[in-house]
Amino acid sequence: MFGPAPGAGGGTLSARILEAEQQLSGQALEGSEFQRDLQRALAAPPHAISPKYFYDTEGSRLFDRICELPEYYPTRTERALLAEHAGAIAAVAGTGADLVEFGAGSCSKVRLLLPALQPRRYLPIDISTEHLVDAAVGLRREHPGLHVQPVAGDYTAALRLPDPLPGARRVGFFPGSTIGNFTPEEALQFLRGAARLLRGGGLLLGADLVKDPNVLHAAYNDAQGVTAAFNLNLLARANRELGTAFDLDRFWHSAFYNAAQQRIEMHLVSRCRQQVAVDGHSYVLEAGQALHTENSYKFSIEGLRRLAVQAGFRPGPAWTDPGNLFSVHWLHAPE
Ligand code: AVI
Question: Which residues form the signal peptide (predicted)?
Answer without folding.
Answer: none
